[in-house]
Structures are given as structure tokens and as C-alpha cells.
Amino acid sequence: MNLSREALWLVVGFVGQIAFTGRFILQWLYSEYKQRSVIPTSFWYLSIVGSTLLLVYAIYREDPVFIAGQAFGTLVYFRNLQLIAKSKNLKE
Q1: S-S: 50 plus which of 14, 19, 70, 90, CB 3.0-4.6 Å?
Q2: Where is the Lipid A biosynthesis N-terminal domain positioned along the sequence (predicted)?
Q3: What gap in Å lies between CA 51 and CA 79, rounded to an integer?
């Protein structure tokens, strides 16, 4: 049972890392499509998913450096979504 628990945590860590890396791929492809540098809203959602999963994984691993880095990033991603929503409300 201990091995399966460890395997589950590895899956959480890797899925978080894939989501976190996927946001860069998304941003790159979207910018290529628009022919200018653009950060789509989905970039921030992937950032939240990836950083939250990595934060949970870091807490499990008891890594204070990793925990601090992921916790701060999550706050920034949520703030960007708030700013996007505020900007959309002002346009309406």
C-alpha cells in the first residue's frame, strides 16, 4: 500500500508539472496564432491548476522552498484573473 500511495503522489506532482508547463505551450501557440505576444485567460487558469497541484505535492514532500514559491505564484495568478474580470466589467 505504501508504494501505491507514493505512486499517487508522483502522479499529482507530474500532473501539476504538466499543467504548469502546458500554460507556456498554450501561450506560445496562441501568440503564434495572433502573430503577437498574447497571454490568454486560460494561461492563468492552467497556472492555478498547475501551481496548486505542485503546492500540494510540495507540502507532501515537506519542501519549504518549493512551498513558498508555489504559494506566492498562486496569489499572483488569482490577482491576474481579478484584473481581467475588472477590465471586462469596465468595458461593458
Answers
A1: 19
A2: 12-83
A3: 14
Give the residue among 5, 2, 80 at the shortest CA–CA distance from 43. Answer: 80
Name the DSSP letter for residue 63. Answer: -
Spans of all domains in the chain: 2-91
Please state the pTM of the whole predicted model: 0.79
Mean pLDDT of 44-65: 93
The residue type found at 35 is Q
Which residue type does 40 have?
A: P
pLDDT at 91 over 80: no
- What integer pLDDT is reported at residue 73 of this predicted model? 85
**pLDDT bracket for residue 87 (50, 70, 90):** confident
Cα distances from 35 to residues 26, 84, 90, in angstroms, run 14, 21, 26
